[in-house]
Amino acid sequence: MSDRCAILPPMRMTWGDFWSLIGTLEGKADREGCGRLADKLSRRSVPDIIGFAERHAEALHRLDQEKFGMLPVADLTDRDGGPFPQSADHFLYARCAVVAAGREVWERVFFDVGAFAPYTSTRYDGEWLLYVVDEAYEKATGRAWERTTRYCFETFSNLDGWPHLRDRTA
């Protein structure tokens, strides 16, 4: 697991504020949109930047569930024509794409696994969203982001979402 996973003091950014900022992306986490979001976030206070990081990590952590991670990549097959599994990184980027799609999509997938499936496509790569906080913090402070978040967003870190992994650690 990443060294970005730890316990931090309470933050002040609300979910409403977080989703409003995510709206800057207009539904997709491409380089341009994430650059706009980083610029916008960098003009806010450092506690807001930290709060955004916390909310983003929590949103990704909540999506770190077996029912989403075991979906195959939507537009790939293996050489025999069978389903192509998501890698840990691909699954993280798919979760970022779901977050970038906005609050409505993020909430819907918890009740409809099929709503997550399109975001496993190679057309949706949310990786750029992972760098927004680093860029915003550096623009705001002149220093590199070296903080951790309360929730770890790395794949398999949400043991409640992967029951067979939780059972092995008990």
Main sheet: strands, sense, barrel: 2 strands, antiparallel
Structural class: mainly alpha
Strand % is 5-15%
Number of helices: 8
- List the secondary-structure elements in sequence, H or E: HHHHEEHHHH
Distance between the termini: 18 Å
Q: Supply Rg.
A: 16 Å
Oligomeric category: single chain
Strand order of the largest sheet: 1-2
Count the E strands: 2
- Average of per-residue pLDDT values: 89
The share of residues in helices is: 40-55%
Categorize the overall geometry.
Answer: globular
Low-confidence parts lasting 5 or more residues at pLDDT below 50? Answer: none
Task: Give descriptors for this structure.
47% helix, 2 strands, 170 residues, mainly alpha
Could you describe the 3D structure shown?
With 170 residues, this protein is mainly alpha-helical. It contains eight helices and two strands. The chain has helices at residues 15-22, 31-42, 46-63, 66-69, 88-101, 103-109, 132-141, 163-169, and strands at residues 72-77, 83-85. A two-stranded antiparallel sheet has the order 1-2. A hairpin with a 5-residue loop joins strand 1 and strand 2 (83-85). The protein is globular and about 50 Å long. The two termini are 18 Å apart.
Offer a concise description of the structure.
The chain has helices spanning 15-22, 31-42, 46-63, 66-69, 88-101, 103-109, 132-141, 163-169, and strands spanning 72-77, 83-85. By secondary structure, it is mainly alpha-helical.
